[in-house]
Amino acid sequence: MQFFLLNKKEYAFFIHLESFSEDYLVRKIDAVIDVDFIYRAVEKLHSENTGRPSIDLVLLIKMALLQYVFGILSMRRTIKEIETNMAYRTVGF
Questions:
Q1: What is residue 57's predicted lDDT score, i.e. its pLDDT?
Q2: What 3-state class would DSSP assign to 5?
Q3: How far apart are CA 57 and CA 85, in angstroms?
Q4: CA gap 28, 23 in Å, rounded
Q5: Exposed/middle/buried for 20, CB within 10 Å: 0-12, 13-18, 19+?
Q6: Do the beta carbons of residue 2 and residue 13 sit within 8 Å?
Q7: Which of 2, 30, 52, 93 suits a disulfide with 88, CB 3.0-4.6 Å?
Q8: In this predicted structure, what is the pLDDT of residue 3?
Q9: Is the pLDDT of residue 55 over 60?
Q10: Centroid of chain to Cα 18
Q11: Domain residues of the chain, as ranges?
Q12: How would you label 45-78 residue by residue, b for 16+ Cβ within 10 Å and e otherwise?
């Protein structure tokens, strides 16, 4: 993890994939499952000009997968895990 100063009160950090071992379960799942096809499947269903912005469907699918794999029963708990677990951020959260 690297830190750098944005201004006097803000810090940012980068997470290196090498920080997490290759056999970490989340990295294995991300390497095996490609969910980017979802963007192509739903591109005709979304309008850029009308309505509210939608939730990123790939992110939603990944969240549901995390819930299933790790036995998390609550969406609030899942969101809290994603916010606090740096390893999840290496695979797109």
A1: 83
A2: strand
A3: 21
A4: 6
A5: middle
A6: yes
A7: 93
A8: 40
A9: yes
A10: 17
A11: 21-89
A12: eeeeeeeeeeeeebeeebbeebbeeeebeeeeeb
Q: How far apart are the C-alpha atoms of 40 and 24, rounded to whole Å?
A: 29
Q: Is the pLDDT of residue 67 over 70?
A: yes
Half-sphere CA count of 10, side-chain side, radius 13 A: 3
Query: Does 1 have pLDDT greater than 50?
Result: no
> pLDDT tens digit string along 17-50?
556 666 677 778 877 888 888 888 888 877 777 7
Return the H-helix or E-strand segment holding 83. Answer: helix 75-84
The 10 Å Cβ neighbour count of residue 26 is 20
Task: Give Cα separations from 64 to 10, 33, 52 (angstroms).
Answer: 32, 13, 22
Shortest CA distance to 25 belongs to which of 62, 63, 67, 69? Answer: 69
